[in-house]
Amino acid sequence: MCGIAGVMMRPGLAPDVSALSALEQALAHRGPDGQGQYIDGPVALVHTRLAIIDLQTGDQPLFEHADDPSTGAVLVTNGEIYNYRELREELGNEHPGLSFRTQSDCEPSLYLYRRHGADYANRLRGMYAIALYDRASGELLLSRDPFGIKPLYYCETEDGLAFASEAGALVAAGIISGEIEETARSELLQLQFTTGCETPFEGIRRVAPGETLVVREGRIVERHLIKALPEAAPEKISETDALKRLDDALMNAVDFHQRSDVPYGMFLSGGIDSSALLTLMARLNDQPVRTYTAGFPGTAARDERDHARKVATALNAEVTEVAVTEQDFLDHLPAIAAAMDDPVADYAIVPTWLLGRAASQDVKVVLTGEGGDELFGGYGRYRSAQRPGWLGGRPMRRKGIFDGLGILRGNRLHWRDGIARSEQRAEIPGRSRLQIVQATDCADWLPNDLLIKADRCLMAHGVEGRVPFLDPIVTQAAFLLPDNLKVRRKRGKYLLRKWLDQALPVADAFAGKRGFTVPVGEWIANHASRLGPLVSAQPGVAEACHPDQVASLFQALARSSGEKRPAFAAWTLLFYALWHNRHIMGADADGDIFEALYSTGQTN
After folding, report:
1. Any bridge partners for residue 420, and if so which?
2. Tens of pLDDT along 35-46?
3. Assigned fold of 239-507
4. What's the rounded Cα separation, in Å, for the pair 233 and 217?
5. Counting CB atoms within 10 angstroms of each CB, which of 123, 296, 351, 570 has the fewest?
6. Which CATH number fits domain 2-225: 3.40.109.10, 3.90.550.10, 3.30.70.100, 3.60.20.10?
7. pTM here?
């Protein structure tokens, strides 16, 4: 796991060395173990390394012809290629004269490119953002894994194209100004994330999940795409056969995702996904698995630590419990918002960031359960979306967070357009209604909320997050299941529950979905009378909202003691205020919530 960045300038222009240094500095937290640069005429590549595999010889950039770096191809990568051992063997058998110069998981990509051109990524099994420059052809390739597990951003200017692992790095380097994009802002406020390839920064775009861009003379000339999900109807398979296939797929995926030359652990919530993940890791490891669990003592939120402890004890796992308190929330939220350059107003960023900080004391890799709900049909909204309208069915995310509250300025009718486009693209002939809503979530909610959250909150502490449920073998086994092996008797993830019930009865797999709630509403309500005037005075909030209505929202929250809907709206505005102050206005993220808001509110 690392940070990558670079530029391809227009003909006659050269990279700005100071901008390259700024990119490297902005991404230093992603790669504290080393830095590297490559400059050749109009092209420059930057790499900051978090050493996970091949600690001795895996520094980047990597060269196709290491004895003469001025020839062949060169690359920098953020991520892990899990099938690198198999690729090395295959490439060696196909080309006996081929000599690998490192043990890096990323080196095989150079030789795959030489044989398959821009389609080289079709052979990769992993999570990755790759920049590869071929000096002979003059082409720069930018590739991202099919689910978008690893981030990659770019901007096109008059001078050429620049890219980076984080959108904020492009702003910090002065390559593009950090101005807000209003449509994306509406999405963020109404959805808690933004859709598609647009970001909240004008002119900065995401490389789409599964996309490879071919850049020549500083302009994009081709786009290639690998699709994450099979485009087929649910298959016919018995429950017995499906369970056997699932067990094989999960064991294989977790085995590959444990490939590492450094210590690793996992995040354990006590839910179905993480309990299944720990069960698999316990099978594959001789030593106790290190687990990290968050709880919210002294609040009304359900505390998962007791159940997580029971699961961990049954599997002889080590447990580190992280108590997330109101004071943690007040003290650390400005720093957390600063880490979320591509903003996600998902309250789970708070425990995820604190878990990442705790895990960094022991390990450099953690496995997490992202993707389980999306692939196995776990969300309640899927069950509602399956039903026709006359039976109470309703589309996902039909209402925004602020609908009916009278807080947002202007016409906000188009905030759902991005979701609607994803729904249309997901409606492939033969797919069931359930598959369509799953595919919709996999297109936007998963990469642009859950995976951004995990990437930024962990990389802020130099920890790599891995997601075995998004392995292509698991994807194939799960997404094509019949609907009744996903949803049965008003419960989602039926087959995964059945598997876990057999593998670890103590996990109580068929208990009702416990959900995951962070008591941000309760914490905000405790300080609402003080927060209301501060949030409403923030320039970013005043641009998008009616300040008097914002103040009234917080006043109502103080009286209601954290009622769900106004609490979530207040949380979204608080996060947005802190994010806007840091990433649009350039304010420091020092101090607690009150210090951060007070300093900006007073100067504007």
Report:
1. none
2. 999 999 999 999
3. Rossmann fold (3.40.50)
4. 42
5. 123
6. 3.60.20.10
7. 0.96
